[in-house]
Amino acid sequence: MSIPSDIKDMLTRKTIGINKEFTYIIPFPDTINFYDTNFNDVDAPKEEGEKDDKPYFICKYFNPDRFTVDGEREIIEEPDDDRLKNWKEAGKVIIDNQNYSCSGKISKGFFDSEKLFYDTDIIVLLYVFTGRNNALLNGFVMCDDLNIVPENVDESEAENSLYIDAICSNPRKPRRMGKPLPPVSFGRKLLDHVKEFAREKEYNGLSLSSLMYIINYYRKYGFRHLPKLNGDVQIEDKQLE
Q: Which of 49, 95, 108, 194 has the most CB atoms in a 10 Å sphere around its CB?
């Protein structure tokens, strides 16, 4: 489903130069969702003044080699040039912003361009309007679809789940003009967004690997130590619990 041109216009700003061409504030996404100050899902702001009451938006990008613009798995022989360009730019956004978004907690080498451009399946970027004609990244997620296995791996190893390879959000309040925003857990909002997408696409669930100091955060959210998400009801081993 294509994104309306008025939203495309809203996410652009004029470059400083003689030709005055438009350049995207962000790589143009496959899908986009807007949120109010309490992070409720809302329609896109129609004019500049509405950005104060609808300050957040989340962009999703699907690997154009393996997914349609709606996030459906499909082997695509010749990816759309614009989608491929935006996909690579979304990866570059993560590389350029990872130190701020992850507060230096994850090694810079983890965000390798080869990994982002070719191995990752879904990129999620969370932005806030700054009050100017611009936006600030406040968090991101990188996901792998475990239904897709490497060529040298047996198909039986596939799992109908989304693996969160990285999730980072800066806990500081966004730097912006205008009235202050209520406190928001950007990490939790990103998790909620990915969980809702997984439910919509009928994945069995989400999985991730966690740094030791943050395991209890994910356990409070609902994650458990399980061998594999196979669609059955599973009980966590008591010793692990």
A: 194
Quick: pLDDT tens for 82-112. Answer: 999 999 999 999 998 888 888 877 887 888 8
C-alpha pair distances (Å), 18 with each of 21, 24, 70: 8, 17, 37
Q: Which CATH class is domain 27-211?
A: alpha beta
Coil, helix or strand for 118? Answer: helix
194-215 exposure pattern, b = at least 16 Cβ within 10 A, e = fewer = bbebbeeeebbbbbbeeeeeee
Closest CA to 120 of 97, 100, 90, 99: 90
5, 11, 60, 127 from 28: Cα distances, Å = 11, 8, 9, 13
> How many Cβ atoms from other residues are within 10 Å of residue 189's Cβ?
18
More confident of the two residues 2 and 202? 202
168: enclosing H helix or E strand:
strand 162-169
Neighbours of 118 (CB within 10 A): 12
